[in-house]
Amino acid sequence: MADWKLPRRKDGFEVRWSAPVRTLAEAARFVDHVGFCVLFPVKNVPLPSLYFAVSRRQEARWDKHAQLIWKWKDELPGRRRAFYAKYFRDRGTFLSPGCLSLLLAAHETAVAPESAEDFYTAGRISRDACDLWIALAKHGPLATLELRHACKLETLTGNKRFKKAIVELQRQLVVTHSGAEQETDAWASNRFDLVSRVFPSECHAAAEISPEAARKALAARYQALYPFASAAVIARLFGWTKAQATSALSL
After folding, report:
1. Rounded to 5 degrees, what are φ and ψ at 9?
2. 8 A C-beta contact, residue 143 and residue 187
3. Biggest CA-to-CA distance, the chain
4. Which domains, ranges and CATH numbers included, belong to the chain?
5. Is the model's pTM score more than 0.85?
6. Which of 2, 13, 42, 202 has a beta carbon 3.0–4.6 Å from 46's, enabling a disulfide?
């Protein structure tokens, strides 16, 4: 775990905002300021969290602050104020619109909804992920059970395959969280949509940015939060090679 180490600060990896975040608009401004953050603090992952920005506590618990940001994870993307999906380390992640464009450019995934088969043929996604992508392109935003049904993944084994594939698409910024829907009497289900449909302006912007320029801008944005971050830390967090991270820092 040595690659994750950064000089210890009073608040760990958290970014102390001028005052605790209290409203949706303030949450959007916080995400814009940091560029990327997780929903709740993640041990040994050097990123700020929205939970800390609201509660000023590093240890998360299911309290009024957690319930507030749980609602915001639906409302911020719904108003196009921030992107939300399982991205960094497969955890709930907010991205500012600007950083979304940069990450799309770095991944080279600012593509048309009809690109699923091309990605599968190129070996960039699994067959299950391809089928989910095609279903969303055909039907529009779908809640979890609807999407599983559309792809014939209703069984327990199918559910495991679904969970793996939907995270795969979120990690590549192809699919985004698009609110929640009450499909059963239990917790509301996640609703998913294609990033290209929900954030078209960010996708268009990404198409004009080279992967190298995107990585340079992202590394600079990250080092603005953590000035002593090494190429190894940045490579591991963003999923780049060590050479790509070193190049981004030297450009």
Report:
1. -125, 165
2. no
3. 53
4. 2-105+205-250 (no CATH), 112-199 (1.10.10.10)
5. yes
6. 13
